[in-house]
Specification:
The protein is about 15% helix and about 30% strand. The chain is of the alpha+beta class. It has a six-stranded mixed β-sheet. A hairpin with a 4-residue loop joins strand 5 and strand 6. It starts with about 35 loop residues before the first helix and ends in a 15-residue tail after the last strand. Mean pLDDT is about 80; it is low at about 1-50.
């Protein structure tokens, strides 16, 4: 951790989550508008929102930006036949977090899938081995908010060879005690959409 109007999802990444081309059927989801009252009185978990259970969150996962970004990648990396770390992933995200996947269809037209974390987990479950890791990071922080542009690579074997790359834009919030992922959006590299040098190692 898909949706979109019915069709086939664009080529994307992210194992159980962060799906790749044609791996999961699309779904249509309506956007939800939030009024000022909700925005000003703080976050409220929507009905049916997933909340983590067991030992999560792990302090090492949420105490620092480095920790939560490392966990973001770790939860989706798994060997064939192994389950994804859904409970740990939930503990990284606020209950109202959104997962957004962009890309292009077979004709090259832009596509978007916008979903809750629960919808993302549901649509992205299953599949074979998948490993994803960070190549480069650009962080912008002001006060209690941060935006991380994290360039990734993925493969069906641990640490490669690379089968694809892209960029995650991950939005985070610091509540005074821990970091929360409030949402993320990504696009994958493809012909005509090369990753700019400034978002690659040495850039």
């Amino acid at each position: 951790m898909d949706v979109r109007p019915r069709a086939e999802r664009p080529a994307t990444t992210h194992g159980f989550g962060r799906p790749r081309a044609g791996r999961f059927p699309r779904r249509a989801f309506a956007c939800t508008a939030f009024g000022f009252g909700l925005a000003l009185c703080g976050w409220v978990a929507p009905a049916g929102a997933q909340t983590p259970t067991g030992p999560f969150p792990l302090e090492v996962d949420v105490a620092t930006l480095d920790g939560i970004i490392a966990a973001y990648y770790d939860v989706v990396s798994h060997a064939a036949g192994e389950p994804i770390q859904v409970e740990r992933d939930r503990s990284l995200h606020h209950p109202d977090a959104r997962a957004i996947i962009t890309g292009a269809d077979a004709e090259g037209s832009p596509t978007i899938a916008n979903m809750s974390l629960a919808e993302y987990h549901e649509s992205a479950a299953g599949g074979g081995a998948f490993y994803e890791w960070e190549l480069h990071r650009v962080v912008r922080r002001f006060g209690n908010m941060a935006d991380v542009w994290s360039t990734y690579a993925y493969s069906d074997t641990r640490l490669g060879p690379e089968q694809g790359r892209g960029i995650n834009s991950i939005q985070l919030y610091w509540d005074g005690d821990r970091w929360w992922i409030t949402g993320w959006i990504f696009d994958n590299e493809r012909p005509g959409n090369a990753i700019p040098p400034e978002y690659l190692p040495g850039g």
